[in-house]
Specification:
24 strands, 17 helices, 539 residues, six-stranded antiparallel β-sheet, binds (2R,3S,4R,5S)-2-(hydroxymethyl)piperidine-3,4,5-triol
């Protein structure tokens, strides 16, 4: 009854929703090599947070969460849809949790990215319905090398695939029915952190049979067509085995764990592709898969083997064209290492999960400025007890204001981002006619920060809006300017702090004295978050 009422209200509202008449389905578009996510026909940067796994299973639990998210200035919540709760009895669907999420997101003026916790969640099949879990004959599992079944549905089985696909299609039908006017849901993640554990590949009967078969022509064609642009990781594996184009998996890639992993990646990606393609045929939202990153020194199988790891990019691209993006979940400290890997070949950066910590604010300024970043999203975002104090909330407040500028100037190459740490405290870049030196705040002799202890990260986004005019937004940075013209020096004509209100710059304090070191540099100290507009001149 409640649901019928909800659907009726949603339909009624959509008739009078002015946005609805002008908006179209969220989509990814390309401007040259640059990818934009369009929401309501405008470029959209996800200033997000992902819920802890269990939070969205209870409306009571969720009730106090929304105000926290608002206090942290999120524009998007990334939230799970649990197959087991959506289809508790085969063929009987209950969308009430999804409806509540959508209803609450709308009330709070937020968008949603939904995570399909279907066949796999962190490798395991813990969110499949009980009627799937308990019927291992109909829904078979992977086997490890010792022949022991794991709680992981095998991707080598049609029943597993079709049953997951049916449920996913029903979800997409439902989203289309209730959301295709307002587009509260802007993207969908298919499955969660896929990958085989214990061993690099499954040893179930169907897997063994497939492993000895000739490698699919489709994959060979992809390798041949993209031979000059393969990741160096895959290229060297194929090269060592002699760039063969026919034979089974071990003929083409050699014997070993790397080949076992490639084999799993292909079969996982094909499985996911069918699910995503069937969902898109109903309702064509952007879709991505996320990755539990491979820990240095670990073997495939110790980490989830065959997931969309950076070294498996080509296999996933070949196997799952319906998937728009491969996305890293970043829980390791070497942020830049992973973001560089995931943005090879001009791929956009979509971070659905990152460890929730104080340094995220600086990373967000860097990510949106430096990369073609579409999403930033700390995990278990609702777990904070002090949302009003969270640095990511302060960063989002600023990023929200400058998002239109980033989207406007980034495709032209006039935006950059910087991440400063104790080990990497100085960076330089040329933007237009100026050479910028960007330093960590603690490099200043008079900065209040500790010289000996741990340094918080500093980070900023810098946007050149005209030849002598820059916006600098961030935390914990100092920026100085030189010119690229021989014999000329750069001077600060004016420096203002300020904010954007309804897209218009509203200046606050003029800062041409102590605040800019009497015209020498621009500074946003650690523990402050600011936007400053600087006008330069040359003398
Ligand atoms: C990554 C997974 O994708 C999440 O669902 C969650 O399990 C986190 N890890 C926990 O750190």
């Amino acid at each position: 009854m409640k649901r019928a009422l909800f659907l009726a209200i949603m339909f009624f509202c959509s008739l009078f929703d002015t946005n609805a008449q002008t908006s179209s389905i969220p989509k990814l578009i390309k401007i040259g090599h640059y990818t934009q996510l369009l929401v309501n026909n405008k470029p959209y940067l996800i200033l997000g947070g992902e819920l802890g796994n269990s939070s969205a299973s209870s409306n009571d639990y969720m009730r106090p969460v929304w105000s926290k998210l608002k206090q942290m200035n999120l524009n998007t919540l990334i939230a799970p849809v649990y197959w087991e709760l959506m289809e508790p009895v085969e063929g009987d669907f209950d969308f009430s949790l999804v409806d509540s999420l959508i209803e609450d997101a709308r009330l709070n003026h937020m968008k949603l990215v939904l995570l399909w916790f279907g066949s796999w969640k962190n490798s395991m099949s813990c969110y499949v319905p009980a009627w799937v879990k308990t019927d291992t004959k109909r829904f078979p599992r992977v086997l490890n090398k010792k022949g022991i079944p794991l709680e992981i549905l095998t991707p080598f089985n049609k029943n597993n695939l079709e049953t997951d696909k049916d449920a996913f299609v029903r979800l997409m039908q439902h989203l289309k029915q209730i959301d295709s006017k307002q587009y509260t849901v802007i993207a969908v993640q298919v499955e969660n952190e896929i990958g085989m554990l214990d061993n690099a590949r499954s040893y179930d009967e169907a897997a063994n049979a497939a492993f000895s078969q000739p490698i699919p022509k489709e994959l060979i064609h992809y390798l041949q067509k993209n031979k000059l642009n393969l990741t160096p990781e895959l290229d060297s594996i194929w090269a060592i085995a002699g760039f063969k184009t026919s034979g089974n998996w071990e003929d083409i890639f050699g014997k070993g764990l790397a080949t076992d992993e490639i084999f799993m990646a292909w079969n996982y990606s094909k499985y996911v592709n069918e699910i995503a393609a069937a969902g898109k045929a109903i309702y064509d939202l952007p879709m991505y898969v996320n990755t539990a990153l491979n820990r240095a020194g670990w073997e495939p199988g110790q980490y989830p083997s065959g997931g969309p790891e950076p070294h498996l990019r080509d296999i996933w691209k070949a196997g799952s064209p319906a998937i728009d993006m491969l996305a890293p979940d970043i829980y390791f400290p070497n942020f830049r290492h992973w973001t560089d890997l995931y943005t090879r070949s001009c791929a956009p950066l979509f971070i659905p999960e990152i460890r929730f910590e104080k340094d995220d604010a600086a990373k967000a300024f860097f990510a949106f400025g430096h990369y073609n970043c579409l999403s930033f999203s700390p995990f278990s975002i609702e777990s904070t007890l002090h949302p009003e104090d969270e640095p990511i909330g302060k960063a989002y407040n600023i990023l929200r204001q400058i998002s239109p500028l980033i989207s406007k100037y980034q495709p032209e190459g006039d935006v950059n981002g910087f991440l400063l740490s104790k080990d990497s405290a100085y960076q330089t870049i040329t933007m237009g006619e100026y050479r910028l030196i960007i330093k960590h705040d603690y490099t200043l002799p008079w900065s209040s920060g500790s010289r000996d202890g741990k340094w918080p990260l500093g980070g900023c986004t810098i946007i050149e809006v005209s030849p002598n005019e820059f916006y600098i937004a961030g935390t914990g940075v100092v920026v100085t300017f030189a010119t690229t013209t021989t014999g000329k020096r750069a001077g600060i004509l004016s420096l203002d702090e300020g904010s954007f209100e309804n897209g218009k710059w509203v200046p606050g304090r003029r800062m041409n004295g102590d605040q800019d070191n009497q015209g020498r540099d621009i500074r946003i100290p650690i523990n402050q978050w600011d936007i400053q507009r600087v006008k330069l001149y040359q003398y």
